[in-house]
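Slides due. Your pick:
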Amino acid sequence: MMLNKPIARQDLIAQIRSSDEWDVIVIGGGATGLGTAVEAATRGYRTLLLEKYDFAKATSSRSTKLVHGGVRYLAQGNIALVKEALHERGLLRRNAPHLVHDLQFVVPGYTWWTQLFYGAGLKIYDLLSGNLSLGHSRFLSEQETRSHIPTLKTDRLRGGVIYHDGQFDDARLAITLWHTLLDYNGVALNYLPVIGLLKFGEQVKGVRACDTETGEIFELKAKVVINATGVFVDDLRRMDDPTAAAMLSPSQGAHVVVDKRFLPGDSAMMIPKTADGRVLFALPWHGKVVIGTTDTPVENTAYEPRPLPEEIDFILHTAAQYLTPAPTPADILSVFVGQRPLVKAEKIKSTAALSREHVISVSASGLLTITGGKWTTYRKMGEEVVDRAIQLVNLSPHPSITANLHLHGWTETVSAEPLDVYGSDAEMIRELPGANIQLHPRLPYLEAEVRWATRYELACTVEDILARRTRSLFLDAIASIEAAPRVAAILAEELGKDTAWQQQQIAEYHSLASGYS
C-alpha cells in the first residue's frame, strides 16, 4: 500500500482519546509485539500497540541480521524448531522481498571429516525447508572456497560447504510491520509507556499509559492485554503480580562491525563450532561486515546493553583463526549488543543451551504474556498468541491471513540501496528534498530519508533516525556522530523545534553513540 499523506502523531493520539474499548492492547514495539499486533489487526480486531521508547529500540534492532532456521539448533537435535523457522523464513522472503534476501554461507573445511559432517547436516537443513527452500547446499573445492572467501586462511584448507539462508534489516522490518498495522486500521505509538494495569475486579482489562512528550495520561480499556515486551516481560508481569517468579534467564550477544575489506565478495562465512560451542558468523551487511555473536548470561536487562571486553576479544580472536588479514580493535567501526529473552529451564546452566522456542502464559488476572522465540518466527508467535487471546476472552473467531500477507511496501521491483528497504515507497522518497544529497561520505543514506522518517515513520529524535530508521549507528558510529548535527537540523525544521532542542539532541546522541565505537 502506498502512503498518500504524512502520518501525524497527534492524529494517532486522537484515535486513542476517542476509543472507548479496544479488542486487543499489545505492550511492546519489538518483533513479537509488532507481529502480534499485525496478526490481531488483520483478523479485524481493534488493535492498539504501545511502546515505551521507540519501535525496535532494544533486542529487535540488535540481531545478527539473519532470517534462518538455525544450524546450531539442528546440531542440538531440535528438529521441530528448525523446521518451523525454515518455513517462516520462506514465508517472510515471499511476503517482504524488499527486506529479506538470499545469502550464501560458506563453511570452510580443514579436514575431510568436517566437510563430510557439515555437508551431511546441511543436506538435512535443505530437506527441512521443503518447497520454501532458498537454494541447495553443495560441497566446494579448495579453489571455489577461496573464490567465495578471498581473505580465508588457506593453510591446510581442503574445501568447504556452501548453503543458503536469509538476511534482513531488523529495525527496518519492525518499521514495515508498524506500517502494515496502520494499513489494517491498527494504532501504534512510540514514546507512550504503560505505567500501570487497569483491573476490574481481579481481571486485567486495560492499561494506564503516559505520553512522554506531553505528560498526558490515558486510561485505555481492552478485552485482552498482551505482554510482548521481550527481555522485559518479567517487569510487566510483576506490575500485575509483584510475587511473580521470573520466566527468563536472559543472555546477551555482542557483534562487531568492520570494513568490507575483511570479507570482500557477496558470501558470508559460518564458523560451525567456536570455543564456547556456538557458531560464529561473518557476513556482509549494508556495505560493511558484521561478525558475531556471543552468548553471555546477564543478571540485568537493559535498553542499552554494552559488551564485555572478553566478548570483543573472543570475536576478534575467533575471526583471526580464519581470516587474513584479521580485524583488530582499531578496525572496529561499531559494536552492538542484543539481549535474548531465553525461557528458564531446570538443570541447564549455560544460556547457550537454552531453547529459542517461545512460551505463552496467562496470569491469574488474565494478563497474556508471550516471550522467547526469535525474529524469524515472529509471525508464528503472533498467530499463536492471538489464537490464545480469542479463547481467553471469547473474541469472535477469525482465521489468520498473515502467512500469505504481503507486508507494507511489497514490490517485485526492488530499488538499489539505500532505498531498497522501503519497497514501493522508495519512489516517494526520491521526490523529497535531499534525495540526491548523501548524509555523510561514509554512510549510504540520503537527507531525504531523514525527512521521510520524520513525516511517515514517527521518528522523534536524532537517535531514532541514526539508529533505527537508518542503520548509521550500527555501521559506523563515528560517522553517525559527525552526521548528527545535520540530522538534528532537518528534524528541527520538520518538527518546528528551536536551536536549543537541536543542541540537546546532538549532545544526547553523542553520549549514546560514543559507547558504540
In short: The chain has three domains: 9-59+172-247+353-404, 98-166+249-340, 430-513. Residues 347-355 have pLDDT under 50 and may be disordered. Residues 221 and 342 are 30 Å apart (CA to CA). The first helix runs from residue 9 to 17.
